[in-house]
Every structure is written in structure tokens, then in C-alpha cells.
Amino acid sequence: MGRQWHLLGVTVLFAASAAIATDVPRFLSPSKFWGQLVYQVKPLKPEKVVALTFDDGPWGTSTRQVLQILKEEDVKATFFVLGKHALMYPDVIADIVKAGHAVGNHSWSHPYKSVTAAMAKQEIENTSALIVKQGQAQTRLFRPPGGNLTTGLVDYAKSKHYAIIMWSVDTLDTRPNTTAAQIVERALKGVKPGSILLLHDGGGDRATTRKALPTLIRRLRQQGYRFVTIPELLQLAVKAPTRKPEPTPAPAPEPSLGPAPLPTPKSLPPPELTPTPPTPSEPRLEPPRMPPN
Q1: Whole-prediction pTM value?
Q2: What pLDDT is stored for residue 245 in this prediction?
Q3: Active-site residue numbers?
């Protein structure tokens, strides 16, 4: 009930923000990818492009340090954010968007187990509404927690024309005792033109990921790769429109309100200053390795 209460409270906070202005950034996909699983992309023109993606943030200082590394290396990436973490760090998504990176939806609470259709809607819509409020941006990119396709979240995301963004290269950067050198070598071993690399900026101590990131970027550049966001990568797989632009998915419906009475925004507890680590009974935020499709 605690998590449901919190989601319902957030619904009240952000229902009014679900309407999307026409001039905000839109992290969408060509209609070819609406409701589709995407593990990697084959560009129409042979080109060595790669997309770096980061999961489980925002995570305070960790995400900001990742942003600083990307700025220094002049690289754009895509961040798949958790709603409950974004609520803790209300300024980080805006900083991600302002820096030219893309944002995707990674659910609200990172559930591994199956959820009801109503809860799936809340997990996704409340996170998207928060992205609108904090980042002034719309997204139709969704990455399921742990890569799990059977919790009910993917079914809902597909029904709303989200592209389901998986990955083709898992750097295993959350694996215990992994080293920065191992992260780099795993990425280089699996990369190919159109690859999507899985990394993490949140969900725990990501110092090893941050240590590996500059070397990984430079090694990929030495091999001739350039870095693109997920929307840019998807666009490289379709022909440019000649007469009219790709249709835009309908704006997300406002998150559904739960049964009255609901807590008012003033009665909501203040966000925690730092993310609460999982208890021993909770699963770790470490996705399993997913094979390319």
C-alpha cells in the first residue's frame, strides 16, 4: 500500500503537467518502431555509430559526474530514468535535457514482478509526467526494468506507441567486483555499427562505470565510431520524409486518479536527500544479460 499511496500522491502532483507544449523537446521514434523491441539498429547508410545509454538515475552526484564526463568528451547519450529517483533530484532531468541528451522512461519503481494493468499505467504515466514537469520534454522511449518483458509494463508501453529500447551490448557494469578495464573490454568486444550499450548512472555506487567511461569513449572513437542518442540512432534506420514529417504519437493521457480521498500535495512527505538502498528482501537493480534479437 505504501508504494501505491506514493504513486497516487504523485498522480495528484503531476496530472496537470501531462499536457505537452508544442515547443518542448520530444524524444520520439519513427513510427516504424512504435511498439517494437529494439536491441540494435542497422543504419540505412553504412556508418559506425553507437548509442550510450544509462539506466536507474538520476542518482545525485553520480549522474552529474557522468554528465560532466560526457560534456568534456563532447558526447550525447540517452538516460533512462526512474520516477522515484527523479522525484529526489528535481533539477537533474532538466540538466540532462539542456545538455542535449535524450531521456527515456524506465518506470517509476523498477518492478521486477508482474503488476496489474492499472499499476503499469501509473508506473509509466507518472514517470512521463514527471519528465514533462522537470525536463520540459516528452518521451516515447521505454526500457523495461531488468529487460523483463513479462511484467505488464511493456504491454502498456506498446499500447501507447513507445519504442521498447533494449540493448545489444551489456557492459555488466553493475556486477560486483568488476573493474573499469573489464567494462571497457566487454563494450569493445561486442560493439558493432548501430549498437546500443547498456551502462548505469544510478541504482548504487557507479564509481567504476564513471572511471571506465572516458577510456571507453576514446577507444570507440579510435575505432571510428561516433556517438548518437537513441532518437538519432532510430532515425538513421528510416528514410527521411519527403512530403510530410513522421506522425507524432498522441499526447500521453493524464495519469489516472485513484479512489478518493487522495493525499494533497502539501501532505506528501518530502523527498529523501539520498536514494534509499534496497533492503535485503528487495532485488538488486542489476539487469540480467540480454542477448541481441
Answers
A1: 0.81
A2: 57
A3: 55, 200
